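Sharing a chain and its predicted structure for anyone who wants a worked example. Both blocks are below, sequence first, tokens second.
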Amino acid sequence: MKIGGIIDISTKDIPNRASMVIFTVGCNFKCEFCHNKYLLAPDVGKFYGIDQLLKIIGSNSLVSGVSITGGEPTLQSDLSTLCQEIQQLGKYVSIDTNGSHPDIIENILPYINRIALDLKGPLNQERLKVITGVAVKLEDIEKTIDLVNKSSKVEFEIRTTYVGNLLTSEDLENMLMFLNQKQFKGTYVLQQYQFLEGVGEQFKQIFQKPEHDALINLLKPYQEIDFPFQIFLRDDIVGYKNRNELF
């Protein structure tokens, strides 16, 4: 498995759990606002054997979970094996994904505890191409959502990074209504875009950080709607808070 970095301990990647974070190299999306662009370069990272990774994970008694992120982890051919082995260590396993490989997700579902799916925008071919920089197979993302949503044993978070000058209130409405129609029963997180150096200096003025009040205004029209899922806001003012506590 090609790894671009490892964080020994994090309290931010898996809610209420200290975890090790493993960054896989490579992604099939080309989102210009991505702060992990360095993981897309062909000469980045190094290859680890599964045994090497297990030794690193097993030696860290401070963490109870492992978050595998990227990049896009489902591009790694040995992801399923790694998940199985981490499960055998008794660690909680969380996977971050863009949802574009439902076959891989289906294969690893028995060996993981959580999936965090980055829904980049509404499932509209034209809009997603603008947001991700590639032609996305909408049916693959929808299939991934359906697969995970049917699993009673896997915690499911769907999140959208709201990027100023890129996403719109209409995009958010389309996503929430889509998830409502799907009877999504996990957690939806609207998270604040924040510029980091990895995005690239040339994009600093193109993509804007939405202010707290702007995010609140985006969520206001939905405060009385009884969705089958919970909605959270994640930003630098409230941290991570349920919409019911925001109004």
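Comments welcome. The longest strand covers residues 2-14.
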